[in-house]
Write a structure and sequence with these properties.
Blueprint (H helix, E strand, L loop, with lengths): L2 H18 L8 H19 L4 H14 L6 H9 L5 H19 L1 H13 L3 H15 L6 H13 L1 H5 L12 H18 L5 H10 L8 H26 L9 H13 L4 H23 L3 H14 L5 H5 L2 H22 L2 H9 L8 H14 L7 H19 L2 H17 L11 H6 L5 H26 L1
Helix pairs in contact: 1-2, 2-3, 2-17, 2-20, 3-4, 3-17, 5-11, 5-14, 5-15, 5-17, 6-7, 6-8, 6-13, 7-8, 7-10, 7-12, 8-10, 10-12, 10-21, 11-20, 11-21, 12-21, 12-23, 14-15, 17-20, 18-20, 19-20, 19-21, 19-23, 20-21, 21-23
């Protein structure tokens, strides 16, 4: 039996076993069977024997055909409900922003400019890579597209200038650049809602509990915690995992030559930059202006198409965007199903009591640390969000006072970015940088544990500052 066949068989067996086991007391058989399918989907997302979006699509199809959400009309309305979710459309629109950066060449230009002006030393190169990510982060919710698709093609050329290759002096400069790149993108992914697609997905899920997280509210809490961590990361890597080459005079010259090749800044690059800034302003102040964030995003995408920054064919042919759109829409429906069938209420009734004898601060810290550490078991931040966010937020809603629930939610969801540093599979660009070959698996796990611990500290400090 092939590895793919085994991978397909495991989730199916899980669903079948739970299907025929009697439901626990207090839970309906339909809810228990839905949980079996939900768990099978999560296991499928971790193993991924078939594309992740297809796993979610199959999941909602099975639930609908079995009538676990009511009659046939109710079931299909539930199955397709995620496709009308405004959060999902915001993610899709933001993928078009990433396409605009790529199509105009603005993202590559920003990275090269950073290397040109900051890359005279290896430490400066680290900061150049980090700041390139930071500049793009508010507008690119796919850190895979940002770090792996935009920064990686530029940064991976730098070590080769000095003869630093995976099989020849990787520690000279290549290992340092690789770790700074992945570590920085994890931090920037926590800074902004729109810097990581699972952030946006998670915000959409918590709305089911009437917790509404605005872009600016997230930034007010996460930026003060993440900016010092961001500034520390290249230097900390320089100390903990130092490159053997400290100077890099060739890098600025190479970047300058590359900039000459791509020529002067074009009108479309200026226009793309202006539209990105406009989107950011509307995301920050949209609530006061009466403009929904998703409305702003899709309007700006329309302008991008009309001004030929991207074409309609670019939108239609963006497989990654449509893949995420279908994937996240199905996961939103599945997560909402947990509440509809009564599973969330069941967990509230049976889990919340564990925290009743604890102090509020201790309970919140345990929830955050447990949520963070459990990422070791997930090969996808999206799977982590779908499986755990509804449960953790439901439990928090029972023990955290209403006036503290919003900041607690932001701190919990804000950890989604930084937890990506834990493993070689922890976030989208991790396999790309790991696959570059400059960092061994053993070294990655060691650095991941160290940086993972350090990256958790600001989140814990946030509990004492904001709650």
């Amino acid at each position: 039996m092939s590895k793919k066949s085994i991978g397909l068989l495991i989730p199916v067996l899980v669903a079948l076993v739970l299907w025929f086991i009697p439901a626990p007391e207090g839970l309906s058989q339909e809810a228990w069977r839905f949980f079996g399918i939900f768990l099978a989907v999560i296991i499928g997302l971790i193993i991924e024997p078939i594309p992740a979006a297809l796993i979610g699509f199959v999941g909602i199809s099975i639930v609908a055909i079995l009538g676990l959400m009511g009659n046939s009309g109710d079931s299909i309305k539930w199955a397709l409900s995620g496709f009308s979710n405004t959060t999902i459309w915001l993610i899709f629109a933001a993928f078009m922003f990433a396409e605009g950066y790529k199509k105009t060449g603005l993202g590559r230009r920003i990275s090269l400019l950073m290397v040109k002006y900051m890359g005279k030393s290896t430490l400066g190169l680290g900061y150049a890579v980090a700041f390139s990510d930071l500049v793009l982060a508010p507008f690119m919710p796919s850190n895979t597209a940002r770090s792996g698709g935009t920064i990686y093609p530029v940064a991976i050329n730098i070590p080769q200038l000095f003869g630093s290759l995976p099989d020849n002096e990787p520690r000279k400069i290549g290992s340092y650049i690789s770790w700074v790149a992945i570590a920085s993108t994890c931090v920037t992914s926590s800074m902004f809602i729109t810097a990581l697609a699972p952030n946006v997905l998670a915000v959409g899920l918590v709305e089911k509990n009437n917790i509404f997280v605005a872009w600016i509210e997230w930034a007010k809490i996460m930026l003060p915690l993440m900016v010092p961590l961001f500034l520390l990361t290249p230097w900390l890597t320089y100390v903990v995992y130092p490159p053997t080459q400290k100077k890099s005079p060739e890098a600025p010259a190479w970047a300058a030559e590359e900039l000459k090749k791509i020529g002067s800044v074009t009108f479309k690059e200026f226009l793309m930059l202006g539209l990105a800034i406009l989107a950011l302003v509307l995301w920050i102040f949209g609530k006061e202006l009466g403009v929904n964030g998703t409305t702003a995003a899709i309007c700006i995408v329309s302008i991008m198409i009309l001004t030929n920054i991207i074409s309609w064919d670019d939108l239609l042919s963006d497989k990654a965007a449509f893949n995420v759109f279908i994937w996240f829409a199905t996961l939103v429906a599945l997560a909402d199903g947990l509440k509809k069938v009564g599973l969330i209420q069941y967990l509230n009734d049976n889990v919340s009591s564990i925290f009743t004898d604890m102090s509020l601060t201790s309970a919140m810290l345990i929830l955050i640390v447990l949520f963070y550490i459990l990422h070791y078991f997930f090969a996808s931040t999206t799977a982590h969000v779908t499986a755990l966010v509804p449960v953790f937020i439901a439990v928090a809603a029972q023990i955290v006072p209403s006036e503290q629930l919003l900041p607690f939610t932001i701190l919990l969801l804000g950890s989604l970015g930084v937890m990506g540093i834990l493993t070689p599979y922890g976030t989208g660009p991790s396999p790309i940088w790991y696959g570059a070959g400059y960092i061994t698996q053993a070294r990655w796990w060691g650095l991941g544990a160290l940086f993972g611990f350090i990256y958790l500290i600001p989140i814990i400090i946030g509990v004492f500052i904001f709650l």
